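Encoded backbone
================
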Amino acid sequence: MPNLTTEPVRDTAAATVKGNCVAQVEAEPQCPESATDDMPEEVVSLVRRGQLDLNIRCAVRRDQPAVLELIDEAKLWLPRKYTDQWSKDWADQKGRKRSDRVQASLAQGTTWIVTVTHEKQTYAVATVTIEPTANPLVWDRPGDLDDSAVYLSRLVVARGLAGLRIGAALLNWACDHAGHRYQAELVRIDVWTRNFALHSYYRAQGFRWQEYCRDTSYPSRARFQRPTSRKARRTPRVLTAVKSLLGAQP
């Protein structure tokens, strides 16, 4: 999948919000110890029945193992979709491998993590990186960089919770985040060139095809975008854990 330079958002005022009230305030986030491959069946069942809140916050350095675990879980599943996505740990134009890119985005405050908590144990459910700066190797058409847009990458949902439209809910949240934080009109993503099932997924989520980028050596050439005003319906609610980010619950 694809791959912002403003002051990064920090989670020093983290809170879990339920309805219109603040249930808990933490100076330090509780980092997940594992992703859903280690989630007890009881917790999976509670999430599937909508009885546990999905909480999202800006990921910190200590979240790196959980973020990488979500990616690794997806990497093992992707061959079933007849794609070579993430089969090799390719380096970007700066020579950075996947773990280096994840570490950099955590340091910049541009990666977000969705978690659930049950009986004082927190589990990673999904992750996404949201950047306001385009990769010019991908967004290389005339006028691309003139648009008001944010750029998504590494959108991953744990396989144990597939089918719950958590990805669609996270895309809706990302649109709200992009509009409020960056006044962006578009959300963009570049998708693995040969992951045609994923191309279809983003089309179903309201993204429009924007041609391949011109660099034929880039592994994620398929470009898609969606207006931040467009939202998918019938998705679970993703609660923000950063009160100061939007000023209101997205």
